[in-house]
């Protein structure tokens, strides 16, 4: 395991870094596992101790290992602050491919979804079931109609940008001028463009802990260091955020303030205003992910977007994918005009062209006279399904849960602490597919449930499965 392949022309400390990284990535070194002492590693590699120290220092700086006084050097248990090391040939580039790393638990879930057993409840998938996606009638369209459509420029289909702007003004009372809107192929393309244009490798970004952003490989692929900030019932904790900003020279704060993924929490107006003020003081931009904006169970005036509070300092991401389905892949990014133009130019240079087809369909949906009514019916149905799931969890003393104010996620915390690997396996054994908290954080004590995927007839089955799993986990903890 500790046999070092010394390559000609490669510094020895780099070879040591490569070896340890390879062991971490292939599972020979597990999260939390302690490495041999510096003296032992020097003996294994037949090198000076200073060479080993140099290599370990680099791995600490990259976030792959941590040093704890009195405990030695250990593999980092999470992904906070991790950055990849540069490579000099194709083999090494592939070794650091962040997109190739799939969690084994995720692989098992996705395999079970493909098998589509009648006994399996898929509450893991992060989108609406087909029966809830609103249906819209479109006028007859010919292929020639699409070819002749000339109202698209570098920012996207102009009528769609106008419709988005008008909806924002009507529903939330804030301005998203069409010239400040960039239509994207979903919210993740907007995020990708921001990483490529406004940030650079080695920059630090603060996000909520837990957060769906933690699970995205694009940050690690871009060399961006993520730092998680704890949340309370009002949203991201600002005292902790300020400490992270100071300690890590944070370049951007990314939040999902309304019906947060995965916790379902909604940031209070008081916290929203304080967050904006804090970031203004440090001259740090905020990226606001507001893809669940239209799926609110409470009046929209209670959840004003950060963009409305501070139009100049907030980058705003919206999407229709949570309503029309992920195949639509329509999102948008609002930013100051100079920023939007740079992002559009970057996309053009990367040849990320955007098809007119989904944009035209999205605009037809948005301008449908029954759009608001259909979304209202959808949110009513979501609230009913969420309440049914919440009522079951609230009656179980082992779980801590709050009813969300919108979206379609419920976050349930196991009150007895960390769940072990065999506890997580119970969910798979019972065919109850959920997203575990370790997808979104270092924490291993909670589950995310997509309650939109449980209709009235499935509620008894859900309750039976969850009670069986809860009983198994409880008995397991008692026997230890």
UniProtKB/TrEMBL annotation:
PROSITE patterns referenced in this protein's UniProt entry, alphabetically: HTH_GNTR
Tree of life domain: Bacteria
Residues covered by the HTH gntR-type domain: 10-78
Sorted UniProt keywords: Aminotransferase, DNA-binding, Pyridoxal phosphate, Transcription, Transcription regulation, Transferase
InterPro entries noted in UniProt: Aminotransferase_I/II_large, HTH_trans_reg/aminotransferase, PyrdxlP-dep_Trfase, PyrdxlP-dep_Trfase_major, PyrdxlP-dep_Trfase_small, Tscrpt_reg_HTH_GntR, WH-like_DNA-bd_sf, WH_DNA-bd_sf
MF terms (GO), sorted A to Z: DNA binding; DNA-binding transcription factor activity; pyridoxal phosphate binding; transaminase activity
Pfam families reported in the protein's UniProt record: Aminotran_1_2, GntR
UniProt keyword annotation of Transcription present: yes
SMART domains named among the record's database cross-references: HTH_GNTR
SUPFAM superfamilies listed in its UniProt record: PLP-dependent transferases (SSF53383), Winged helix' DNA-binding domain (SSF46785)
This protein's record includes keyword DNA-binding: yes
UniProt record similarity statement: In the C-terminal section; belongs to the class-I pyridoxal-phosphate-dependent aminotransferase family.
PANTHER family registered for this protein in UniProt: HTH-TYPE TRANSCRIPTIONAL REGULATORY PROTEIN GABR, TRANSCRIPTIONAL REGULATORY PROTEIN
Full protein name: GntR family transcriptional regulator
């Amino acid at each position: 395991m500790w046999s070092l392949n010394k390559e000609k022309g490669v510094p020895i400390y780099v070879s040591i870094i490569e070896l340890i990284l390879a062991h971490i990535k292939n599972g020979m070194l597990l999260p939390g596992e302690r490495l041999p002492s510096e003296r032992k590693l020097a003996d294994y590699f037949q090198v000076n101790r200073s060479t080993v120290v140099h290599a370990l220092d680099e791995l600490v700086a990259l976030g792959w290992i941590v040093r704890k006084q009195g405990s030695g050097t250990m593999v980092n248990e999470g992904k906070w602050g991790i950055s990849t090391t540069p490579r000099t040939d194709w083999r090494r580039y592939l070794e650091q491919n962040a997109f190739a790393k799939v969690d084994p638990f995720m692989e098992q879930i996705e395999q079970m979804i493909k098998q589509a057993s009648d006994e399996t409840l898929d509450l893991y998938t992060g989108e609406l079931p087909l029966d809830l996606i609103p249906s819209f009638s479109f006028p007859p369209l010919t292929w020639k109609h699409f070819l002749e459509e000339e109202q698209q420029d570098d920012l996207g289909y102009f009528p769609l940008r106008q419709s988005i702007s008008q909806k924002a003004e009507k529903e939330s009372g804030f301005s998203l001028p069409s010239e400040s809107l960039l239509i994207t192929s979903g919210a993740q393309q907007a995020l990708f463009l921001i990483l490529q244009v406004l940030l650079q490798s080695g920059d630090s970004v603060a996000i909520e802990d837990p957060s769906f952003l933690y699970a995205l490989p694009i940050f690690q692929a871009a060399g961006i260091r993520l730092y998680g900030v704890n949340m309370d019932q009002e949203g991201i904790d600002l005292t902790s955020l300020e400490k992270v900003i100071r300690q890590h020279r944070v370049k951007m704060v990314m939040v999902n303030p309304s019906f947060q993924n995965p916790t379902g929490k909604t940031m209070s107006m008081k916290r929203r205003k304080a967050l904006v003020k804090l970031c203004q003081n440090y001259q740090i931009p905020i990226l606001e992910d507001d893809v669940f904006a239209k799926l609110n169970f409470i009046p929209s005036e209670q959840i004003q977007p950060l963009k409305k509070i501070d139009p100049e300092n907030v980058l705003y991401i919206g999407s229709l994918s949570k309503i029309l389905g992920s195949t639509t892949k329509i999102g948008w990014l609002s930013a100051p005009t100079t920023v939007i133009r740079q992002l559009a130019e970057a996309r053009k240079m990367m040849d990320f062209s955007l098809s007119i087809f989904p944009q035209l369909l999205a605009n037809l949906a948005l301008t449908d006279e029954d759009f608001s009514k259909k979304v209202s019916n959808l949110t009513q149905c979501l609230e009913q399904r969420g309440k049914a799931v919440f009522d079951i969890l609230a009656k179980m003393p082992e779980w801590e849960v709050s009813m969300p104010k919108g979206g379609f996620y419920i976050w349930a915390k196991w009150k007895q602490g960390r769940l072990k690997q065999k506890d997580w396996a119970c969910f798979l054994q019972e065919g109850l597919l959920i997203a575990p908290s370790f997808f979104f954080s270092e924490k291993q004590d909670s589950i995310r449930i997509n309650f939109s995927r449980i209709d009235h007839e499935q509620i008894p089955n859900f309750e039976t499965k969850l009670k069986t799993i809860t009983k198994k986990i409880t008995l397991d903890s008692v026997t230890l």
